[in-house]
Amino acid sequence: MKKLLALVPLPPPYSGPEISSKILFSKPFDNLRVKIINVSVRKNKLKRGTFSISAFLKFLLIYANYIFQIVFYNPNFVYHCITATKFGWIRDFIILFPALLLNKKIIIHMRGGHFKIFYEKLNSKIFKRLIKFCLDKSYRIIVQSESLKEQFKGYDNKLEVLPNAFEEMFLNINPERKGNKILFVGLLTYAKGYNDLLDVAIKILNEFNEVEFIFLGERMEKETNIFYNQITGEKLNVEPFFQISHPRLKYIKRAFGYEKLKVYETCDIFVLPSYSEGFSMALLEAMVSGLAVITTPVGANKDIIKHLENGILINPGDREMLYYYIKLLLLDKSLREKISKNARKFAIENFHPDIIRKKFLEIILKQ
């Protein structure tokens, strides 16, 4: 039986990479023995991408365990999730180098959708060579959707697509909907489209007396990852964070597991007007929950959303169209219900955990 050593982030914190890794490795695989090393060094996702002594010491312990496992567990494959940041690539090179020395087959999983912009904006030739070295030596390069392949020209023979899977608890969702609740899930940052939505929310609240907004996520003081519009490549003109107090606007910092499920059960419309995404877990959760979704054609979104069929697509930063489509879904019940039904059906048929785990196994064992 083949052996895989998986270096993956696991909860906490409860964000996309951690949740998707937990789902992927929640059950054993046929004909593949897996040993997992949890590489999360922070329990607070707001602290990711920043340096601290405690995080560094945790990394050293993880790295020591990794060296032990790669020698004595002796895996055929080493699987590692990569985030496109300077600090991340330094860490990832340090992790991958021993596996290369021992001739292990390295499978890198590219999270996020901004690698091409990140790479092109790098001024350091050393960093670019380091990244190219990692890509050249990899056995497989996994991206999260078909459109994200274009970021890795020249590596066609290594590229594989593996979308995220949803948590199985969403199959048992019990909606309690009245057609008037709008949900945002994600970090409250400009890059996630928070400012755009809040600006539009003020207008909607003034126009509709029964509409409610729920913002589920934490405020991030400083962006550490997304600095460019993924579609245009332009640098984001980040606006200051702002927050409003309104009886029909609610902020929820955190909700996990069935507590989060309850939030989805009571909402009707999901809005994520991001400037950059890989494969949004929040969008996937909204779709499988049967919400009518409005999002932007970034990352995997443009591969999984068919406009006005299982969702609505607008350009990042287009507040006028964001306002128009939120208002349309509030007023047009038949359209809202059509998108809701189609979104849930599409999510279950394509992103069920068993489907994604089967695809992962095929990628690993592919000759």
Characterization of the model:
With 367 residues, the protein is an alpha/beta fold. It has 2 domains: 2-164 and 352-365, Glycogen Phosphorylase B (Rossmann fold); 168-351, 3-Layer(aba) Sandwich (Rossmann fold). 40% of the residues lie in helices and 16% in strands. The protein has 12 helices and 12 strands. The strands form 2 sheets. It has a 6-stranded parallel sheet, with helices on both faces. Strand 11 (292-295), helix 9 (301-304) and strand 12 form a beta-alpha-beta unit. Helix 8 packs across helix 11. It is globular. The mean pLDDT is 94.
Which architecture of the largest domain would the CATH scheme give at its second level?
Answer: 3-Layer(aba) Sandwich
Strand order of the largest sheet: 2-1-3-4-5-6
Give the integer mean of the pLDDT values: 94
Count of β-strands = 12
Contiguous low-pLDDT stretches (5 residues minimum) are: none
- The structural class is alpha/beta
Quaternary status: single chain
Q: At the first level of CATH, what is the class of the largest domain? A: Alpha Beta
Largest sheet: 6 strands, parallel
Net shape:
globular
* Whole-number tally of structural domains: 2
CATH structural fold name of the largest domain:
Rossmann fold
- Would you identify the CATH H-level superfamily of the largest domain? Glycogen Phosphorylase B
**Proportion of strand residues:** 15-25%
Share of residues in helices = 25-40%
* Succession of helices and strands: EHEHEHEHHEEEHEEHEHEHEHHH
Distance N to C terminus? 15 Å
Count of runs of 4 or more consecutive helical residues: 12
Round the Cα radius of gyration to an integer and report it: 21 Å
